[in-house]
Design a protein that fits this description.
By secondary structure, this protein is of the alpha/beta class. It folds into 2 domains: 223 residues, 3-Layer(aba) Sandwich (Rossmann fold), CATH 3.40.50; 37 residues, no CATH class. It has a 7-stranded mixed sheet, sandwiched between helices. Helix 3 crosses helix 5, helix 7 runs parallel beside helix 10 and helix 13 crosses helix 14. 37% of the residues are buried.
């Protein structure tokens, strides 16, 4: 979805300015809500905590009670808040943006008495001691890296042996042509110029070279985490082909969905390798000395 605004390379906006611009545009209301950029940051954080996405995150991590968590690129802190409310011992919210709307000031407004420690830093230079966290989590963070390999290495440095790493909703492309198409259509990149994407192989290579062992790779339609906002629950995901057929053909679409092979064809179409599709990566820090 393109945003028809008069922004040129010479007048790129900050991330906060871009959000404020989009928030002022009535046609972008749903995008703002689905991105958790609504003005009331607490309401956004509570909404995220209640999502099927976050519940699946907890399941993939095996729970987070009493865990020390790095929330990398914490943004306005919705994930940090959700982890803290879910029993984490300490959540290190690392965020380079200081702004009130989408940066550290927003996290401050959420933190209150919760065990959230707010740190000014980037993924290539994480302001934490070596082997200090049990979980490394990033939601739409790694594809923003200035140096993907350096960021992976820093995550490995701060992770304790056996720590989990979960990267959610990372943009994937197959080649330069797909990257160009993805960036051209991205609503935020047109305002800030700060989006990017990599191949699945590049993400895997960076993580394994840093000392992580891949435990799972979720493609866009494998998980609610990646499929949001098209679907918002596991039930919606499982019947998504039926929903699409009903949207296209009305009541006959439900009958069409019952035809043998019809849903399989819809899934095949959905799973085409579209530019910027979402992937998530689950990994574990190998013991030092084995990397």
């Amino acid at each position: 979805m393109k945003v028809p605004l008069d922004v040129t390379d010479e007048t790129m906006l900050s991330a906060e300015q871009a959000v404020l611009r989009l928030r002022a545009d009535p046609s972008q209301t749903q995008l703002i809500r689905d991105s958790y950029w609504d003005k009331d940051v607490l309401a956004a954080a509570e909404r995220f905590r209640a999502t099927a996405e976050f519940q699946e995150v907890l399941e993939l991590l095996g729970g987070v009670r009493d865990a020390d968590i790095l929330d990398l690129g914490s943004g306005r802190g919705i994930s940090a808040y959700a982890f803290a409310e879910s029993g984490a011992r300490c959540v290190y919210a690392v965020e380079p943006d200081s702004s009130r709307e989408i940066g550290r000031e927003a996290i401050h407004s959420l933190a209150g008495e919760l065990p959230i420690r707010i740190l000014d830093g980037v993924g290539e230079q994480i302001p934490l001691d070596t082997a200090s966290v049990d979980v490394v989590y990033g939601r739409q963070v790694f594809h923003h890296a200035r140096d993907l390999e350096d960021m992976a290495s820093e995550c490995a440095r701060v992770a304790r042996d056996g720590a989990s790493l979960l990267l959610c909703r990372e943009h994937v492309v197959d080649d330069q042509r797909q990257l160009e198409r993805f960036l051209e259509d991205h609503p935020i990149h047109g305002l800030t110029g700060e989006e990017h994407a990599h191949s699945v192989e590049r993400y895997i290579s960076a993580l394994t070279a840093a000392g992580f062992e891949l435990k799972g790779i979720l493609a866009q339609w494998d998980s609610v985490i990646n499929a949001f906002p098209a679907v918002r629950s596991s039930e919606e995901l499982s019947r998504y082909p039926v929903t699409l057929l009903e949207q296209k053909f009305g009541p006959p679409g439900k009958r069409l969905a019952a035809v043998p092979g019809a849903q399989r064809l819809v899934w095949a179409r959905l799973r085409r390798r579209r530019p910027g599709r979402m992937y998530s990566f689950l990994a574990q820090r190998l013991p030092r000395g084995r990397t």
